[in-house]
Amino acid sequence: MSSSRMRASFLYLFLTVFFLVPAGCRPVPDPTDPEIIKTKEDNWARIKVAPGFLLTNNMWGTTENTTQTIYQYTDGSYGWSWERGKTRENGNYPEVVFGVKPWGQHEEYFLEGSGLPLQLEEVASLVMEMDLDYKILHDTGDNAWWNLAFEVWLTEDKPGDKVEDSITDEIMIWFDWKDVPWDPAEEDWEDSEAVKDHQYEYAYCLSVPNWSEENGWGWHYHQFRIKEKGTIPEVVNIKPFLDYIQEEHQRSGRLWLGSLEFGMEYGDHTAGRVHIKKLDYVINGKRVASGRTGK
Rounded to an integer, what distance in angstroms lies between the CA atom of residue 281 and that of residue 274? Predict the structure, then answer.
């Protein structure tokens, strides 16, 4: 067995162990983590954890009955913890963002020369490298669900200012998940052999035009997932996923890719923590780094 395969197998066993805590306990960082140097709890609060990387306390679904905190540690690593009770609202998505989302971004956070935004026809290569730990502390009850995922948006207009009205596609890659309400059964997957990257296979599970149009959105939602559920590869080649959507849905190479996002989406009656030790992207051969390697 190769060292990378052994590592992935170890991560699978480690990360899928669930630790239960009594309801009402506030999630906190693991005591073995490095010393915390910065925390924020307000909705949409941000911590610049590396040049171009924004750790974002994204509670877009609700702040009701929810505690969510983002952290930065002395060694350059970072993460978040959360606990949420009953709300019956949409999910939240604490995340780290590199680049410019369709909703715009303050100039002081933008990294000039980072390689983004790019039009699809300009993306020759795009690789994500990561090392993280996470624990789900509680996930039982009505509307209790979560997913650990990477996400990008495609837009007709160049990101920088607010261009959310020009969003065409939302593309997610799930690495672990539980009981997500819009999760299709395996027999309903669009393509069970959509992408092969290194030794891992990814299914194209969900394709929904006019996603949540009742909320005024209406873009096309795409969901991939790793077939080795709970496995966190050290390296993920993102470009084949973009190529798949471009080819299968006849997307123009002139569409813009402005941001790269990684986070934990969750619903009611859940609690947990994520510790990101490394999250790097290599965009057309140029590396941008965060975590212990990004100091």
Answer: 19
* Phi, psi (rounded to 5 degrees) for 107: -60, -35
d(CA 243, CA 227): 19
The residue whose two tokens read 């604490």 is 94
Can you name the residues that pair with 39 across neighbouring β-strands?
A: 71
Rounded to 5 degrees, φ, ψ at 256 are: -100, 140
- Judged by DSSP in three states, 132 sits in strand
Look up residue 18 and give its two tokens.
């669930």
Task: Output the pTM of the full model.
Answer: 0.88
Q: Where are the domains of the chain?
A: 3-288
Instruction: Provide the H-helix boundaries in 142-238.
Output: none
Homologous superfamily of 3-288? Glycoside hydrolase family 11/12, catalytic domain (2.60.120.180)
DSSP state of 187: G
Amino acid at 48: K
Closest CA to 69 of 260, 259, 230, 264: 264
Q: What is the pLDDT of residues 187-244, one digit of tens each?
A: 999 999 999 999 999 999 999 999 977 767 789 999 999 999 999 999 999 999 999 9
pLDDT in tens, 86-145: 999 999 999 999 999 999 876 555 666 678 999 999 999 999 999 999 999 999 999 999
Write the single-letter amino acid at 78.
Y
* 166 φψ region: left (φ > 0), alpha (ψ -120 to 50), beta (else): alpha
Question: The tokens 């160049």 sit on which residue?
Answer: 158
Greatest C-alpha distance within the chain: 51
